[in-house]
């Protein structure tokens, strides 16, 4: 048995993807209203019955506002700024920078460029989770 919670954050940004067929719309500089969901899990609850306090995720909101909001993501991250890569980059940042109760772990990060699409990063069994 495990418990899961999540919190959604948003930011506005632009990107341009390389390596696409000529004329592909994503090869041009364009923007999205991104949504980022951080999912936490725990097999037991901390007091007063939380996986974690949602306020524990406030550093994510600040990080997105300072580093990603109204930026060109090609200049912000060191990999091709696809939703998949953004999810992985944000998972790693969260694992290194979000203090959580000892009973909680970051399970996944999901990134949406549109209301109908998303990409999710979940570390494999050999990866350390925080």
Brief characterization of the structure:
With 130 residues, the protein is an alpha+beta fold. The chain has helices at 58-68, 83-97; strands at 3-15, 30-42, 71-72, 104-114, 117-121.
What would your notes on this structure say?
It is a single chain. With 130 residues, the protein is α+β, with helices and mostly antiparallel strands. It has helices at residues 58-68, 83-97, and strands at residues 3-15, 30-42, 71-72, 104-114, 117-121. The protein has one domain (3-121): Tetrahydropterin Synthase, Chain A. The chain has two helices and five strands. The protein is elongated and about 55 Å long. The mean pLDDT is 94.
Features:
Tetrahydropterin Synthase, Chain A, 2 helices, 5-stranded mixed β-sheet, 130 residues, alpha+beta
Question: Which secondary structure elements does this structure contain, and how are they paired or packed?
Answer:
Layout: E1 3-15, E2 30-42, H1 58-68, E3 71-72, H2 83-97, E4 104-114, E5 117-121
Parallel strand pairs: 1-3
Antiparallel strand pairs: 1-2, 2-4, 4-5
Strand order of the largest sheet: 3-1-2-4-5
Mean pLDDT, as a whole number?
94
- List the domain count as a whole number: 1
Give the CA-based shape: elongated
Task: Round the Cα radius of gyration to an integer and report it.
Answer: 16 Å
Looking at the structure, the CATH topology is Tetrahydropterin Synthase, Chain A
Helical coverage, percent range: 10-25%
Q: What characterizes the major β-sheet? A: 5 strands, mixed
Number of DSSP helical runs: 2
- Unreliable runs: none
SS elements, strand count = 5
CATH-assigned homologous superfamily: 6-pyruvoyl tetrahydropterin synthase/QueD
CATH architecture: 2-Layer Sandwich
Give helix and strand order, one letter per element, not per position. Answer: EEHEHEE
In terms of DSSP E residues, the strand content is: 25-35%
Query: Structural class of the secondary elements?
Result: alpha+beta
* Distance linking N and C termini: 19 Å
């Amino acid at each position: 048995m495990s418990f899961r919670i999540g919190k959604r954050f948003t930011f506005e940004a632009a990107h341009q993807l390389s390596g696409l067929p000529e004329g592909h719309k994503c090869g041009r500089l364009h923007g999205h209203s991104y949504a980022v969901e951080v999912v936490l899990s725990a097999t037991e609850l901390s007091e007063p019955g939380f996986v974690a306090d949602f306020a524990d995720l406030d550093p994510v909101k600040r990080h997105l506002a300072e580093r990603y909001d109204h930026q060109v993501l090609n200049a912000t991250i060191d990999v091709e700024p696809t939703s998949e890569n953004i999810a992985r980059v944000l998972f790693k940042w969260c694992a290194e920078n979000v203090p959580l109760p000892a009973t909680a772990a970051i399970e996944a990060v999901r990134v949406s460029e549109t209301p109908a699409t998303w990409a999710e990063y979940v570390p494999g069994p050999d990866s350390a989770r925080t």
